[in-house]
Automatic annotation (TrEMBL):
It comes from the Bacteria. It comes from Pseudonocardia kunmingensis. The lineage of its organism: Bacteria, Bacillati, Actinomycetota, Actinomycetes, Pseudonocardiales. Keywords: Oxidoreductase. InterPro entries: Flavin_Rdtase-like_dom, NADH-dep_flavin_reductase, Split_barrel_FMN-bd. One of its GO terms (molecular function) is FMN binding. This is Flavin reductase (DIM6/NTAB) family NADH-FMN oxidoreductase RutF. Residues 21-167 form the Flavin reductase like domain.
Length: 176
């Protein structure tokens, strides 16, 4: 694989890259924070990954196209809500541009530290940013996990695959 450097090649590469990851399932999370003005901001993310156990740390990619990007990137802390299949409505709400993400009846409550928390999510990781790196049309945030809220529920995880939300199916049997 070589790059030619032409705009046409870059467009073809971007399209092939998007298609490659469209067919690679990823877990779904909702990331929330209190922005500089004190209001809640958030987005749905499928680009969240653990990177370290000591200290516990993760990375999340924040698209610059998101209306929540500026608030999330400026926040001193944020929550990553790891979602189950039963949280699909929450994922859709935060993935929809212009949706009322924090309106009446959405079920969120502020933590004492200010971050918006959705108790319906089975796990919420409270994070403190360690580093931010602009990469193309996104910023990758590396963050230390400083707290975990867990409901103890363990339903099937919510996945994103081929532009849609899915439920993880049964485990395939081991080969004989």
């Amino acid at each position: 694989m070589t790059a030619t450097g032409t705009a046409e090649h870059a467009g073809l590469l971007a399209s092939a890259f998007r298609d490659a990851f469209r067919h690679h399932p990823a877990g779904v999370a909702v990331v929330t924070a209190r922005d500089g003005a004190g209001g809640p901001v958030g987005l749905t993310a499928s680009s969240v990954a653990s990177v370290s156990l000591a200290p516990p740390a993760l990375v999340v990619s924040v698209s610059h196209r998101s209306s929540a990007a500026a608030g999330l990137l400026a926040a001193g802390s944020f929550l990553v809500h790891l979602l189950e299949a039963r949280n699909v409505d929450l994922a859709r709400r935060f993935a929809t541009p212009g949706a009322d993400r924090f309106g009446p009846g959405t079920g969120w409550t502020p933590l004492t530290t200010g971050e918006p928390w959705f108790p319906e999510a089975p796990t919420a990781l409270r994070c403190r940013p360690l580093a931010r790196a602009a990469v193309g049309d996104a910023t990758v945030v590396t963050a230390e996990v400083v707290g975990i809220r867990s409901s103890g529920r363990k339903g099937p995880p919510l996945l994103h695959h081929d532009r849609g939300f899915h439920v993880l199916g049964p485990v395939l049997p081991d080969p004989p």
